[in-house]
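Teaching assistant here, posting this on the class forum so everyone can see the example we discussed in section. The complex has two components, and the goal was to see what a joint structure prediction looks like when all of them are supplied at once.
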Amino acid sequence: MPVFQLDSLHLILLFPFLGFLVNGIFGKFLGRRFVNFVAVSAMVLSAWQSTLTVFQLWRVGSRDGHWVGARLVQNLYNWFTAGSFSVDVTLMVDPLTAVMIMVVTWVGLLIHIYSTGYMEHDDGFWRYFAYLNLFIFSMLILVMGKSLVLMFVGWEGVGLCSYLLIGFWFEDAAKAAAGLKAFVVNRVGDFGFILGMFTLVVLFGTLDSVELEQKVAALKSLDTLLPMGGPLAGMAVGTAITMAVLLMFVGATGKSAQIPLYIWLPDAMAGPTPVSALIHAATMVTAGVYMLSRVNFLVVLSPTAMLVIALVGGCTALFAATIGFAQTDIKKVLAYSTVSQLGYMFLGAGVGAFVASIFHLVTHAFFKACLFLGSGSVIHGMGGEQDIRKMGGLRKYMPRTRDTFLMATLAIMGFPLTAGFMSKDEILWWAYASPAVGSWNVVLWLMGFIGAGCTSFYMWRCYFMTFSGDGRRIDHHAKEHVHESPSAMTAPLWILGVLSLVGGFFGVPALLGEPVAKMLGQHGNAYHGNFILNWLEPVYAVGSTHPLARSMFAGPGELAARAGAGHTMEWVLMIASVLVGLGGWWLASRMYFPEPSPALANIPKGGLAFIYRGALNKWWIDELYNAVIIQPVKWVSDRVLRAIDAFVVDGLLTVVPPAVVKLTGSVVARVQNGDMQRYVALIVLGVCLALMYVVR
Amino acid sequence: MDYIMGHLLTLLVFAPALGALGLFYFPDREKGATKAAGLTISLAVFAVSLMLIPTFKSEAGYQFVQKEVWIPSIGASYHLGIDGISLFLVLLTTFITPVALLGSFTSIQVRVREFVILVLFLETAMLGALVALDVLLFYFFWEAMLIPMYFLIGIWGYDLRVKAAIKFFIYTLVGSLLMLVAIIWIWQVTGAKSFDLVEWTRVVPGNPMVRKYGLWLFGAFALAFAIKVPMVPFHTWLPLAHVQAPTAGSVVLAGVLLKMGTYGFIRFAMPLFPEAALKFAPGLAMLAVVGVIYGALLSMVQKDIKSLVAYSSISHLGFCMLGLACMDEKAVLGSVYQGLNHGVSTGALFLLVGTLYERRHTREISEYGGIAAKVPLYTIVFLIITLSSIGLPGLNGFIGEFLILMGTFTSDAFAKTYVGANGGVWFATLAASGVILAAIYLLWMVKRVFFGPLRNPANQDIEDLNVRERVLYAPLVALVIVMGVFPGWFLTRMAPSVNQVLSQVRVGAGLSALAALPAPAPDMAQVAPVQAPARVLPQADLDNLGKRLMDARLPPGMPPLPLRPMQGNTPPQHPAPSRAP
């Protein structure tokens, strides 16, 4: 891709940063309206600036009417140099980053607007908006950093904001603990991330994503051994790449809440609901998916790593969906749903369908942000109630929230032609069709397929329990003041709801796009309306055309091949996934519509009791970690190490040397006891010995 | 002016002591005036030390050198000079001293005059040790640091102060006496009749006797420095001394004194005995890694905030020592930088603990909880400093830890030792787990102290930072941010000296010398991936663009774009160490 310098890139992230400074330093003394104004206008400017930049990119990246992609860069300064290793603070916008900044700034803007309504009764509003702007700033650093180190800065920065916002109501010990948990679990992931980066430094001597891509493009063989006498001596390059990718994936599992590090995300729902929508659904948690796309050229060189990523993603998608069955907190349902949907994205990235994973990232940002904001609207209207067992019938009281929630629910269940349908179907198809994962493809597809059914079920369960029925489960206190939210909150809901329905049309699968294109008489374009595929393809060009990589990516050529042989199968799979989604809806409606069936009370006693209890208690994973890791470490540190420190280490050094001194002293002192006769005797003895020595 | 610049280091070293002598004439009852005078003196010293910066050149070798005859009969000289390694330690010392004094304005109420005098004498000793280029002179200042510190802990400390002071004294003295023996031995066998470090660095490593007994000599030096650092298992004096010392004592101890250990390694032990240093390297690295994890685990279970910070010091200094042991450019540079970071961050943490203690007279974590709402400003400062200590990117701690871990991971120094070529990989992996633990112990403490409901009624009336404390913490917070965002400014000044020392060590130890890179001057350091002068898109162009957004992609009727693609695939200018084919 050609590179252009654009010295206005920093403006995109400058505005949120200024907003953070103004609100963070002076916010306490400024009025609520002024703080709202600063925060929202920072986002407006940032969103506008990023839109301009993306159009600029679009313009310079086109050649003769064809999109070839481009990179816009701005080098700010050299961050640090140590020997031959150097990190520049360089911002970059390439097609992938362009997608991300659009999502981050526009969805961020909507959520800022929504927040002005949601936080209207909270005294910490200035702190809230300062954190929120800081979050946007960090997220933009994450996606715009050219160097992986800079990306890591954003990576940790968003983690910090997440920590601060989860524990926003810090006077509640549980919420502060949730923030701590999020930070620490993410640190475990970061441990992998930095070791992965170091492995890349050993391999390529740089962490600049563009330089890395160039070096990978120049790789001739994966079997060359790394030179002896250095780190990773004797390891094959391919193995080292697998190691690097897997280590970085550990980082991704932390940030993006995948097995085994997903445990922090459900707890993270302790934060204000717009935060859950922005950080823990739409943007931050997708950073891991973005990261894999950013280093896609490395990922495709390692089939092992790809399989691991796909399996972890598939398992998470399925596993988290089952937990969603039994949750009764509306935000927890959505949290596990997010974990599950992120699993789909990793499934896509793992089978090499990076575009599909990014596409799902975007559509997920629409419908999950809509769902979270909708749940926030419900919670707001219900006066803080989050238990869906105490809701029901809200469609009467909150019609606009209900409408938008319905739209997003349709999208997430995969109702045909909604945004969620387009992207999820693309991932499922590639899980099945990808040559990257060998014969695991059926297993992976099945995981995603069953997960889709589960998703539909728990989402409809949530929807029915919240909005259908006659409202008999709402307690009468809440019933008195339940109300629809102000328009600052419902307007973003409408926008996101509509996007959930139609936002998928910029990535129409070829299967559907091709006939339409034929009908319209457009044959020249191989993408047939799959705009996002066209747009992102240059980002994956090196990886997909690399001679050492297995063919991963659906380029135009492969699309053509797909149009031939795989057509029937693709139709079958698509219809199957639609049917399983409808099946989930049907089951949920039988059990929960209009009111939860009385028979449900028997589940805990019946044959499904174990599954029910497992899902209810999140399969005891938190308890497991606590028993296997946390408690032993605490016990060892507290009981063993402390004793060792106090008695062994300290004891050896403070008891033994003095004892030696004392012993020597007592021996020597005995000689000098003032007894003149003994002195004379010793002198005589000494003289004799000396004489013997001299004479002999 | 030339005279002053030529004797700047002498002025710097003895100015605090002279000021202290003047304070002897202050009446004992004028507590406020004494404190103010002490603060003024130390600030003046700080101002003088800032004069070093503009004249200092980013190149190898000693600068501001001054050499006089001291004791001609044994060849000892009064030889002062600084390089990139000591420059920032000097600045750190002159910065920390006024901070420590200002931080103890209210907590020190008895024997104020003596307190200020001792702190100033301590500053002289520390500065002397940092700028001395004569081994005997260094030893003189090194031991001179002990005495004021001993009294600071022993007189103004808390309940167990006498025990702590004695323990501190004996531990450090034992180590340094062995070093003295080694110094005299070297002086004897080399026959150089000189204690000059520059001379020693040239002749000592190659001397056959020194090479023969190198392990012992290195051991004697290393023990002195390892106790000071302190490395596990010689660390037990530290928590006791830290907890018992008055705030100023802890701040200076953490801020500067511990750095003397790492400084001693890089200035004396490693260049003088490179072969022995290489042999010891795996052992040192192991102890360092043990220190990182051991300190962190113990820190986690402390019930006293100050003791927690003290153990975290052991963990952080473990990183510094690991970096030195790796003999890798990145790691050593990171280690030197991390020393500064630790000085600022941990010094600030001790100050913060002191501030809290002044209000509630307890350091027990369980006494607190939920005070964030009462002391918001204090909480913010505490959180920023904590995050810097955790190594959050953007704040100072990250750069040091990142460079150390990366340097360790990629180090080739262990290839010839018994741990093998992958030793560095394992050390880095283990040490990196300390980064996780740091987040746990520090943020868990933050959570228990600041968050949650305010249960203890004694915390009801706790006050937020007053004006003096705001003045105190502002420069610390600023420094934490500046050092994290613009580390290049510091690193470019350190790098030539670090490279020089490291080249001496590596050549002496039989490792390949580092590539003779030119000093990374600020412009050169920008390994721009784009070489050709690129056309810049003006903002105006971008604004105009908004008007014709929709037809942006349509070629007909479009004016030619005012930009030209740059050569995307130009090779980087640096000889990048690409090890992959």
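For the discussion questions: Chain A touches chain B through 101 residues (CB under 8 Å). The CA atoms of residues 85 and 371 of chain A lie 45 Å apart. Think about how each of these relates to the inputs above.
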